[in-house]
Each structure stands twice: as C-alpha cells, then as structure tokens.
Amino acid sequence: MGAIFAHTSPENKAATGPLESYAALLASARYAPLAGFAAVESVRRLQPSSSVYMEVVRVSPAGGRAGLLQWLLEG
User: What was the pLDDT predicted at 51?
Assistant: First the structure.
C-alpha cells in the first residue's frame, strides 16, 4: 500500500489524509471490485489532449457482478 500512496498526487494525499486513511479508503466496499478480481478488460481508451488520458475498464470480481470503472489521469 505504501508504494501506491507514494505515487499518489499531492492533491489526492491532501484529500485522503495519511497512509492509514488512504489504506482504509481502498479497503472499503466502494473499492472492493478492484481487490481479488477474476478478470479485467479494457472497454475504451481516449486521449482527448496531450495532458489527459481516460480509460474505461470492465472488472469482473471473483463470484461477483461485473462493473465498469472509468480512470481519468490529468498531467
């Protein structure tokens, strides 16, 4: 978890608080589909500008219902 937190933006760290709070957030039910998934598939990738990248992925949790997640990275 520490490695992920180390690469988190300063803005995200300010919003989530210290590593312990960040870890608790990722362990919550909201992020459960990202833990122990059975399959992941890229649905759509976009780069609308040189500083913005977006990707939609379908995550299928083991024994659960698949869902879509959208990632937005801005540089």
Answer: 93
- Of 56, 65, 2, 73, which Cα lies nearest the Cα of 33? 65
Strand partners, 26: none
Query: Of the candidates 34, 40, 30, which has an alpha carbon nearest to the alpha carbon of residue 1?
Result: 34
Q: How far is CA 4 from the centre of its chain?
A: 11
Sorted by sequence, the CB contacts under 8 Å of residue 53 that are 6+ apart come out as 45, 46, 47, 71, 72, 73
**Of 13, 58, 15, 23, nearest to 39 (Cα)?**
58
Structural domain spans, the chain: 1-32, 36-75
Residue 20 pLDDT > 90: yes
